Amino acid sequence: MPSDESVLRVRDVRKSYRGNPVLRGVDLDLPPGRVAGIVGENGAGKTTLLRVLAGDLRPDGGSVRHGGRIGHCPQETVLHDAFTVDQHLRFFQVAYGLESLRRAEELMEALRFSGSRRARPATLSGGTRQKLNLVLALMHDPDLLLLDEPYQGFDWETYVRFWDLAEELRGRGRSVLVVSHLAYDAARLDTLHRLEGGVLRAADRTGAA
Amino acid sequence: MKGHWTCYATAVRMTFVEHLRNRLALVIIVLFIPVWMILIYALSLEIPLPFFVRAADRTVTMPAGVLNQLGGALQILALITGFMMFVTTMNSAPFDRRLVRSGFPQPCLIAAKLTALVVVALVVALYATGLICLTHPTAQPLLLSAALAGGALIYGGIGVALAAVLTSDLAGLVLVTVICSIDLALQSPLATPAATGVLVRYLPDYGPMQAAVAAVAMDTVPWSAVGPAVCWALATVALGISAFAGRTRVQGPVGGPVTATHP
């Protein structure tokens, strides 16, 4: 862990595409046990920022420090249509070096899709694919979970279960960073930031996007 | 070591599941290879054709049907392995990248892809060799299998490399078909009067074609054809692996603590 106990510490992160600056110096600190949100208009650079934070994209400058294991749930469901749900779990069990799939099974139970383990993604609904996408990001019980528009395709009950899960993670000292273009969940967050003009600013949690 | 073996075994299983889900390729292997090879043999002109085995510095005369069948076998095997490797590599790229970011060792994925390529090349080569031996006597069936497998390996590597730069199935199929058609048409004495020219030595399937003809019509191994074939196979497979590694490269795995500082 970094000395300040932050699970994520971001300093002056910059990123441009073909000379067009998207991130102009992003700073962010996220302590353990916090649920934070980042909102911004379409094209503001939210997904770029999350990819930089996840280590998926190299920034032009600045620093990103993680204080533990991280999980990243991308906006697009990154699954493989040739594999069953069970096979997905098995491959990521090996990737994360997990002894068992106990945590994955708990998550599937919490999200109510334990019965689909022999199904392939192509036969699942968009919401169920997104549940699997989320389980793959969470099954190693990361200290920090990075979520990009995580509840697309969720029905209301799943949406509520998702926030119950976020509460459970926060209660166990895990941190969650949610990126969204809407701020209607602001009341569920500990802190809210707005990405505007390539920098992060504190935002009012009672206001809409 | 045990961890790496587990990763490799898992990746191999995953890669074969992908290939076995490619039903079109399996149907082509089981049905189209024999139909194509028997038809091209049966419907060719019944004339003798001279073929210059440059690697042995000798001209052999063979029935046109046999020569066309060998060229046809190399072509269909090149198309199948090239397209199978292209499709699986392209379709699984985002998933492979996510796996690597989650801590799955990239070398295990690469080794699994290579294993699948070699197994696919050997299986289709042995199958095609059996079919060729059924239609006419072959002096050196093992050499014929090696020649066909070499051709399949070369185009499998091309398929993996193309998957790094193309984004549609159709584009991959067209490119593999065009490259392979030009390659083999230029070596056919029936299609190209200049098939004995020096330039054919630099074509990808030069080595496999020379070895395949020698396997049927001669009782010696044309060793000087082996070098170009091995070089082409190593070069295309290395290119494919480099392209795959570049495409699945990540800044750091998400499974473990990371400190990334950039000036």
Question: Layout of helices and strands, plus pairs?
Answer:
The complex is a heterodimer of chains A (209) and B (263).
Chain A: E1 8-17, E2 20-30, E3 35-39, H1 46-53, E4 61-66, E5 70-73, H2 85-96, H3 102-110, H4 126-138, E6 144-148, H5 156-171, E7 175-180, E8 191-196, E9 199-202
Parallel strand pairs in A: 3-7, 3-8, 5-6, 6-7
Antiparallel strand pairs in A: 1-2, 1-4, 8-9
Chain B: H1 2-21, H2 23-42, E1 48-53, E2 58-63, H3 64-101, H4 106-135, H5 141-163, H6 169-185, H7 206-217, H8 223-248, E3 259-262
Antiparallel strand pairs in B: 1-2
Protein name (chain A): ABC transporter ATP-binding protein
InterPro entries (chain A): AAA+_ATPase, ABC_transporter-like_ATP-bd, P-loop_NTPase
Keywords (chain A): ATP-binding, Nucleotide-binding
Describe the structure.
The complex is a heterodimer of chains A (209) and B (263). Chain A has 209 residues and is an alpha/beta fold. Chain A has one domain (8-202): Rossmann fold, CATH 3.40.50.300. Helices cover 28% and strands 27% of the residues of chain A. Chain A contains 5 helices and 9 strands, in the order βββαββαααβαβββ. Chain A has helices at 46-53, 85-96, 102-110, 126-138, 156-171; strands at residues 8-17, 20-30, 35-39, 61-66, 70-73, 144-148, 175-180, 191-196, 199-202. Chain A has a 6-stranded mixed beta sheet. In chain A, strands 2-1-4 form a 3-stranded antiparallel beta sheet, covered by helices on one side. In chain A, helix 3 (102-110) runs antiparallel to helix 4. Chain A starts with 7 loop residues before the first strand and ends in a 7-residue tail after the last strand. Chain B has 263 residues and is mainly alpha-helical. Chain B has one domain (2-248). Chain B is 71% helix and 6% strand. Chain B has helices at 2-21, 23-42, 64-101, 106-135, 141-163, 169-185, 206-217, 223-248; strands at residues 48-53, 58-63, 259-262. In chain B, strands 1-2 form a two-stranded antiparallel ribbon. In chain B, strand 1 and strand 2 (58-63) form a beta hairpin. The longest helix of chain B has 38 residues, at 64-101. Chain B is elongated, with a radius of gyration of 20 Å. The model of chain B is unreliable at 253-263 (pLDDT under 50). Classes of the chains: A alpha/beta (209), B mainly alpha (263). Chain A binds chain B through residues 54-72, 74, 76, 78-83, 87, 90-92, 94-97, 136, 140, 142, and chain B through 3, 6-7, 10, 14, 17-18, 21, 91-92, 94-95, 97-99, 101-104, 250-263. Strand 4 (61-66) of chain A pairs antiparallel with strand 3 (259-262) of chain B, so a sheet runs across the interface. Chain B: It comes from Microbispora hainanensis. Chain B: The chain crosses the membrane at residues 24-44, 64-87, 108-130, 142-166, 173-203, 223-245. Chain B: This is ABC transporter permease.
